[in-house]
Structures are given as C-alpha cells and as structure tokens.
Amino acid sequence: MGRGLRLRGLDPVFFISHLIFLGLSYTIYLAPHIAPSTFPYFGFVPIVYPLIVLANFALIIFLFWRRAPYAILFLFLSVGLYFPLNKTYQFFGKKVETAPDFKIVSLNGQYLREPGFVNFFNQEKADVVVLQEVYWRNEKFENLKDSAFADYYHEKHSLIQVFSKYPIIEFKKIFSGEDNTVGLAAYADLDLGKDTIRLINVYLEPMFIDKKLVKETVSDMETAEANSIVLKNKLTKGFLQHESQIKKLLPYINGSKHPVILAGDLNAVPNSYEYQQIIYWLKDAYVEVGKSSGTSFHDFKYPLRLDYIFSSDEFLPTRYEVRKDVKLSDHYPVIGYFKLP
Question: Does 210 score more than 60 pLDDT?
C-alpha cells in the first residue's frame, strides 16, 4: 500500500469505528420492517436519523483532512444514506402539469388555542379539511364551524373533525381511546357524484413528551440519565400503542372498495414502522410531488415530519405544501392537491 493510503497511529481505530458507525447507520433500511412488539428500540433510529447522517458526513470531512483517499471511499459508501432522507427533505419532486380538481388540508389544531383559524380556512377554500386535537364542544369550535365551514358537511369523532364540500354518505369510527389511549381514527365515504372516495382521518397516539423534559435531558447533566429513561419509556410505550392502532387501521385501507385518501397526524416520522405499514398500500403525496422540507412539527428545535397525506393509486398528486408561514399551532398545515379518479 502506498504511503498516502497507509494507516498510522490511531488511524486504524478511527477507520474501523467509522466503518461500524456507517454499518449501524444503514439499519434505517431495517427499522421500518421490525414491529415494535419484536424489538421496540428500532423505533429510535428513524427519529435521530438526520443527526446520524450529519455525524457521518462530519466524520468524512475529518477524514479528508487525515486521509483523503479513505474519505472518498466513505463518501461513496454513504450514498445510500441519502434515499431515506428524501421522505423528509424532498427538493426534487415530480413536476405535474395536470390541473388539480381536489384540495385537502390537514392540521393538528392544538385545541384552537391561537387566533386566525377562520381567516386561514376562508382563504384556503379546500374541498376537504381534516383536523386533529380539535374538540367540538366549545365556543371556539362553533365559531370556526359557523364561519369557515358553514357550507360544509361535518362529522366528528372526539378530537378529530372532518369537513367536506361533498356529501358524507358513511362515517365510521375506526379506533377511539381503547385501553387508556387517546389516539383516534375514523373514515368518511364521500359522494363525488360520479364516484365515491374514502377519506380517513388519523391521529395516532401522542408520545406526551414536553419541551422541558427534552431540554433538561440535553442540557442538565445531573438529570440527563433519569430524563433519558423517562424519554425512552414514553417512546417505546408509544411505539407499541402505534402498532396496535395501525393493525386496526389497515383493514379500512386495504379492504376499501373505494379509492382512499388518508391524512392526519401520525405522531411518527418517515422510515418508521407506522409509516412503512401505510406506504405498503398508499402513496405519500409529499414524496411524489414535494419540493421543500416536509417537517411539520415545529415546537422543538429539532423539527419533525409528523403530518401526512397519503393516497391510493387512483389519485394523481399534483402539488404538496407544508405551510410554514402559518403558525396556528405547534404543527404546520399540510395541503395536498390531487386530480380525482
């Protein structure tokens, strides 16, 4: 081996450590296929995956300083790490020339705490709106319903709401807070005139993680270990609850005799088990036509993509937006445009 490629001093340790780290990074391809009931800790990989990729490229930059040929080797070996990222950071979505004839907005409304909902929905004029964390027995909701959705059909299931310009011919709850959970899902079959479509509104179990807990875990060394255990327990419990809820949800997707659009707050990131179970059957509109960052939850300094719009093959996605200029809650609205079947 030439002098430029010879490993010296601690270089072999660094080389082997980086190789092991790179191998662990590729478990992102395995994580979506491992059920939480089999091994719940795989659920952590998709959450921290962007940080893993950043760390890997920081190591490559360091290698360029130490041994450029090996840096080029690791850069080549890291190419596969990009593809899972495009489910959150997609800047090259397809350009679709077809004009859309259906618009859907999904938003976790955080109990309508902030003003501005009426103005936003009056401006959007969507065909369908699905809301999560919006309760219907209060004055704020009644004002929203009477002002922005006066001409819409409406169905509700506790904290999830469906508003549609098309008649709702069937509405059914899918799951609703069983076994001390708060996750919810329901479907509404919409009569489009020439066809019927199934709209599913989903709010998977929240993880109940607040900013204070995360901040103390990162910044306070005295409580970091105890807080890390709390975080781990909350997340693993949530993963297991999601698995149960997804199993209840899937028959209403793969057993539907109508084309399906599913939207809502999954409380799960891309490349997760929950996400993978859905994209076995439906397309992610953001991956198809998104052209910006897809992160939708902004309450933490570490942004996450938790809100989605999926559709069956009969629909043609034409545009997807994450409205980061609209801060009505701790989630941004996500908007999908489609050509109907």
Answer: yes
* Residue 325 per-residue DSSP state: T
pLDDT at 282: 98
Q: How far is the C-alpha of 133 from the C-alpha of 135, rounded, in Å?
A: 6
d(CA 82, CA 220): 33
Share of the chain above pLDDT 70, in %: 94
Give all domains of the chain, ordered by start, each with its CATH number.
3-85 (no CATH), 89-339 (3.60.10.10)
H helices present in 67-164, as ranges: 68-77, 82-85, 117-124, 139-148
> Residue 142 to residues 63, 146, 167: CA-CA distances in angstroms?
60, 6, 20
Query: Counting beta carbons within 10 angstroms of the beta carbon of residue 250, is it exposed (0 to 12), middle (13 to 18) or buried (19 or more)?
Result: middle
Number of C-alpha atoms within 13 angstroms, CB side, residue 332? 20
pTM of the model: 0.93
Give the number of other Cβ atoms within 10 Å of residue 293's Cβ. 15
Q: What is the mean pLDDT of the chain?
A: 92
